Amino acid sequence: MPEATPTNEDGVRIDLISGARMDGLASMEKIRLILDSVREGKIVILEAGLSPDEESRLIEVTMSEINPDGFSGIEIETYPSTQAANQSFLDRLMGRQSTKKLTVIGPANQIETLHKDETLISALVSHK
Amino acid sequence: MGLLTNLKDSISKVTDRLFSDSEPKRIGIYGPPNAGKTTLANRIAIDWAGDTVGPESHIPHETRRARRKENVTIERNSQTVTIDVVDTPGVTTKVDYKEFLDHDMEKEDAVRRSREATEGVAEAMHWLREDVDGVIYVLDSTADPFTQVNTMLIGIIESRELPVLIFANKTDLEGSNVQRVANAFPQHETVPLSALEGNNMDEVYDKIAEYFG
Fold first, then answer.
1. Sorted alphabetically, which InterPro entries does this protein's record hold (chain A) (predicted)?
2. Residue A117 Cα, gap to closest chain B Cα (Å)
């Protein structure tokens, strides 16, 4: 997996996960991979994002893992999906939804979104 | 195999909707914390059922369980629509009990509220996937609508092909910007209102009857 590894213990690790790697995983495996990484303090960048259903389950599982003085949840940012509105009726009927959207996920207490619009996500990443 | 399963699910969805018209539709009121969801649910319930749904508060996550008000019949002109109003906890991706300490809460109470809030958000997501037939998405029109939670939730609602109305609430407050809400989700109709003051409720009920009738 391509990744930026910290050069010292004070660094913040960023994992960039390819769409191809995620394609081979079941929904819960994707969610587990993301949450395990984020709970270790990593920032995860997904090349192709998650489906709406997977995002829904990610929120649900995240909520079940929040605990006082430990994990307070996730910060997640994606560009808005512009492909959905352009899909054909058949695609929607068959559940073929385009989910290609760069997604950044990190621990809520370490990543703060500074600015977001249709073309730019600006975030501040800090140490624990 | 996946193709056949998807096709079967899609046909099942369509037939479910065709043959369940006699049952009241469950309309989920969704949105981020403190958008005024419970104030709106109470306004609708008082206007058409003479009762409230739940307590309102300025402290985030006051609603920590989904609450359903059944058989709310709304009459508009010649159209009558009966719905179950489901008031849901505000959806978020993070809950930190320390935020509640700013509202003069003891740590023990804040931790409990935080735990209940996380359970409530999970419950709201489950309702959205399994148990609602339509969605009223409530936004505070004084706040930036362009947040990840809003983008994700609208995406989830669209993926389930649920009818959705966007309500730009709190128009009575200085700084309200309905156009900003409309611009954030141009693919959906945005209705301005103040649930607290009861402003523009005629249009709200017209739209509910039109979308969910």
1. OapB-like
2. 7
CA pair distance B33, B40, nearest whole angstrom: 13
Which of A56, A69, A86, A116 best tests the B interface by mutation, with the highest count of B CBs <10 A? A56
Give me the residue spans of the domains in chain A.
3-125
What are the residues whose beta carbons fall under 8 Å from the beta carbon of B59, sequence distance 6 or more? B100, B103
Token pair for residue A29?
């495996």
Report residues of chain B scoring pLDDT below 70: 1-22
Query: Considering only CA atoms, which of B121, B105, B83, B50 is closest in space to residue B210?
Result: B83
Q: Spell A42-62 as b/e; 16+ CB within 10 A means b.
A: bbbbbbbbbbbbbbbbbbbbb
Q: Taking the model in full, what pTM does it have?
A: 0.84
Instruction: Give the C-alpha separation, B93 to A104, whole Å.
Output: 13
| Inter-chain touch B156–A72, beta carbons under 8 Å | no
Record: contact B161-A51, CB cut-off 8 A: no
Domains and CATH numbers, chain B: 23-212 (3.40.50.300)
Q: For residue B120, how many C-alpha atoms fall within 13 Å in the half-sphere facing its CB?
A: 27
Q: If 0-12 CB within 10 Å is exposed, 13-18 middle and 19+ buried, where does residue A6 land?
A: exposed
Q: What are phi and psi of A98, to 5 degrees?
A: -75, 125
Is the reported ipTM for this assembly greater than 0.90?
no
Assign a CATH topology to domain A3-125.
3.30.950
A111 touches A124 (CB < 8 A)? yes
pLDDT in tens, B158-176: 999 999 999 999 999 999 9
Residue B86 sits at φ, ψ, to 5 deg, of: -110, 105
pLDDT in tens, A57-89: 999 999 999 998 789 999 998 876 554 445 555
**Nearest-10 Cα torsion for B97, B99, B105, B109:** -10
